[in-house]
Amino acid sequence: MGEHRFYLSPERWASPSGIIIDGQEARHMTQALRLRVGDPVVLLDGRGRVGRCRIRQTDKKQVLLDLLEDAVTPRPSSLPVMALAFSKAVRRGFFAEKAAELGAHAVWLWQGDFSQGKLPPQAAETWRAQMIAGIKQSGNPWLPEVRTLTGGVDELTRLAAEADRRILPWELEETSAIIEPSLLGLPGVTVYAIGPEGGFSPRELAALDAAGFARVSLGARILRCETAATLCLGLHWWASQLPDHAA
Hints:
2 domains, alpha/beta
């Protein structure tokens, strides 16, 4: 049987009398999984901490855990940021979970000129909930940060200025070679700018070029925006796992 993993925010771990789990996580433990007193569970705080616990007590509303041991997994050296233009057509749950599973450092949802719909103010919290499901499923101890950039490409380029690398995968990029492994999985922060279903506007392309985003091709097919983002993140994850990726 595999481990049962649950999320608990960092500020709720400090309890001398035991760790209390309530709400949806408690219901999932006792009602869906039917865990009982004495069963082992694993807690993640989304900031690298992994705790191995045992259930001490349960009732209808909460579960009390004893923390047996915990450790902190260091933050990875390679930190991919997926700057994904908002679109109502994006399959939010799919990409949010993949971002958590594949080790995204952050997801920046930005308002594109051709975005389908307006970026809602509650988008970050909604995406974060989906990412929590992703780290629980995969065991990734680091929860991606989610930011909403209502300032569009101007805010995106301003934030990306501090990154170590900036990459612009674009389906209409015919003059550049397909993205190369040498660009991927390197130490530091790499920002990938993914446009909406309607593509980038000329203004956005000019701003991204001026900000030093390197244009690359993802091949001949036109991909949905969440597919392109998942592909880039998967390639980055693969490259970061190679023994010589730091070189």
